[in-house]
Design brief:
The protein is mainly α. It folds into two domains: about 120 residues; about 60 residues. Helix content is about 80%, strand content about 0%. The chain starts with 9 loop residues before the first helix and ends with a helix.
Length: about 190
Amino acid sequence: MNLLKISDDPAWVRINKRVTERVANLQSSPVPQTMTSLQTSLVSIRERKSQVEAELAALSAKEPASAWRSALAGRGDTALEARDQLRAEYAELEQRERFAESAIKEGRLELDHAHGKDSRDACDELKPDYLKLVVPKARAAARQMLEAMEIEQRFVDVLLDHGVRIDHLGRVFFPMSRERLEKFLREIEELG
């Protein structure tokens, strides 16, 4: 069995193309683009907030904290104005940050909804191909595995019935139980 040849199958090429088109449709919608823009904006806002915090800390370290101290030092109200401007900018940045965080939270829900809808549509569209290409092979493989299990059990039973110890037989152990395979076959039958 050469699995590399699957990609050459025209049905597989068609399926791959349809899935790629659906993903491209989702990526080209305004939802992911807006999310990217919001996330970039949020990073910028947070970086600027950090800068403002550093500038305020630097002002507080070298400038008097009160109007009296500033006047006494002969600086007038320029130091306080700079501090007030930075605080006002910081308050505005916090508002913009809250807006961006809220929009991102809502956008994630929208993106998840769009992705879920697109995924459902893709699966609905491709389900007939799945049933045609995968289910028959899975059914055949499960039946062959059950047949191999039955043959192995009969072989071992004959040996045991004749008193032969099977310690050195080097038995095959199957990765799945007979019950699970039979259940699997019933589930596949329901698919089609």
